[in-house]
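My hope is that you will study the record closing this message with an eye to the fold:
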Amino acid sequence: MVLFAAAAGGALVVQARESSTQEARQLSKGVAQSFARAPGTLDAMKSGDPTELLQPRAEDARKNTGVDYVVTFDPQGFRWTHPDPKLIGKHIYAVREGGAADRPFTKTFEGSLGLAVDTTVPVYDTNGITIVGFVSVGVTVASVDDVVMDQLPQLLGFAGGALAVAAGGTALVSWRLRRQTRGLDPSEMTRMYEHHDAVLHAVREGVLIVGSDGRLLLANDEARRLLNLPADAEERRFTDLGLEAGTAELLGAGRPATDVVHLAGDRLLAVNVRPVDPDDHTAGSVATLRDTTELRALAGRAEVARERLGLLYEAGVRIGTTLDVVRTAQELAEVAVPRFADTATVDLLDPILRGAVSAGPGPQMRRVAVHGVDGARSLYPVGELIRFVPSSPAAVGAERGRAVLDVDLTAPGGWMSAQDPERARRVLDLGFHSLITVPLQARGVVLGMASFWRSTGAPFGREDLAFAEELAARAAVAVDNARRFTREHTLAESLQRSLLPGSLPDHAAVEVAHRYLPALEGVGGDWFDVIPLPGARVALVVGDVVGHGLHAAATMGRLRTAVHNFSALDLPPDELLGHLDELVARMDSDENGERDHESVAGATCLYAVYDPASGMCCLSRSGHPEPALVHPDGTVEYLRVPGSPPLGLGGAEPFETAEVSLSEGSRLVFYTDGLVEDRERGIDTGLEALRHALAGARRSPEETCQDVLDALLPARSSDDIALLVARTRLLDPSRVAEWEVPGDPAVVAGIRADVTGRLRVWGLEELAFTTELIVSELVTNAIRYGIGPIRLRVLRDGDSLICEVADGSSTSPHLRRAAITDEGGRGLFLVARFARRWGTRYMARGKVIWTEQSTRSPEAEPEEVSADALLEQWEDAAW
């Protein structure tokens, strides 16, 4: 033992020294690398006086980290810093022996401060190639030895203590052996050892030696304990030992038995009986007894554990099947009842139900799930906001973040009486006697509480807490996933709805109704729009961006804005889709390097322009389903609009248009594919169902939208749905006036007179002056610079008066300020001054210059500024 203690002490000393040395190497390496990478180190080494900047920092680092020195030096080996200022500027000899200069290395060498564990780290310039200097950090061996010497008394004390314990143990064992043997000589001790220890006490089973006459000859201690035998049992018959008749018969008869399970009192025994001499049954027998009571209990507990493992597996399968917070809570309650509890309730914090992050557990929670025995809902109904008292298990568990067990709900003066005496009485009337309340925690945040109630069987015990916590933990992850989905879904839906038009403008050309329904899995990129165009026309748009979530919603907003901008240019449908296709291609190209972004290519769009003056509708589509047209008599047809690839995939292929003449009262139906196609229904079936839903006359757009959704809306939509229904109107011919204009400037005066006469018929005499000026300028410019034929059209649309001058030229006028010497260039300025807005629209051949004036009240400008005063702005005297 002395040698063992000495060897152990020496080994501990060596180990302590090695550990201290290793710690010194790690310390020096860590400090050296930290100092080398510290902000300012590189700049200081590159400065004019590195010592002035580095010496204070090196000394601070040495004192704060406990190393013996922090030395910096240049690539030639001349020190910039040193604990001994006298050595600054001195050369370091053999500093790189055993180490490479271009990477950190650690070694033990004899320095100016003695033998030390030293780590040298190079400091590179910003290019990562040039070495600017080195940082050397060391811990002297004397410091390491000091640590070992500080630990040496403890090591020696431990070794001495171990030696003392070993010696004391040896002495105690010797004393106990002498006492137990009662001073018997070795031969007697050997006999007793061979008979009792080897045969009886060494085995962990009850051993009985039975004579041929049924007498008990020998019984070990285990047999006495199992059968509760009296002290003088030897040499007595089993029938005289007070055993049950069946037990006495089984053991005393001497008949062979193998693992016979026998109930003896409150113990379940496995009995084996074997004859001493198989050939001589009169020689007696040996019986062994094995207590299987605990094994049976263990088997019962193992069965319970197996059932609970199965329940946990079932929980993993059944909880979280949907990304709905309330449904996930209900699934937890359904899994727990009845295999773990008679009733289960789940309460969640209100922010969790909205998808928000809770600031922390609070006293108020909302009940979202109750499942269990009849009458359990009388605890608290679903949907009620509960304010728990501080002593309740829910409040205590939420505060501590651990499960709380209440084994006796019937105890007087409990928390239930403080919570609600009337409900407490109903709880006890239902027979509930024990409760486990577990916090639902995910990512360190308490989401709510799950409570498990028992009204039958044994009360909950401590062993049930771990299972309840495991069950709640699995459910909490599913609840948190549902919460996060709810939050993302709410954000995406809010973004989607904010980007969609809140209300569509009233327009004389069409009466519209719309619907937008997001998918259950998340909002997508469907959108619709109604955009007023010059000339009383209107643009109808429906589009669909691939994908779901925030990216699809944001992309939809960008495309909708782009369509508005392109519509402001009054482009034909095919040209507008061409520009939109180029935009999508650029968007995909810009985001191609960002792998987190989804591709936009695959977005679809249907764009139509309807002119109520002529009843013509021009349509173009890019990868979008064909629109439906409901004629005034109720018949339905799908318009054959030439198809093109989705946006971003068109390449060099041009977009095509289709023109159709619409009767007044026709209904144009634009929709996205989510309405007619889903997982359980093909697109052909959906289109046919849509045809049947649209058939029928004399229905308003609102009624049409509702009928379509009632007929086609799936129970669980996997894609969002956009629906736009527009019923066409025609302008009254009496509100449209047209003139063919010869190419002679002399006819301008007559045209002005005709327009004034038409305004007088419409009751717009107050607009005669400005309208004559506008018509005169536009017609004169068309005659002077345009190409025939030239047409003038004046329309009255609601509160607008529209003037349009068309000619065969494709050149467009531009508003500019005329120079002093210019003879012309001022007419378009006057047009822009007096019109509410104006612009140019190109046709297949030629263009249309249009203006729009308000008819609500006389324009303020002609009253405040006379025409002469306005024209004087361009006279030479004014300049």
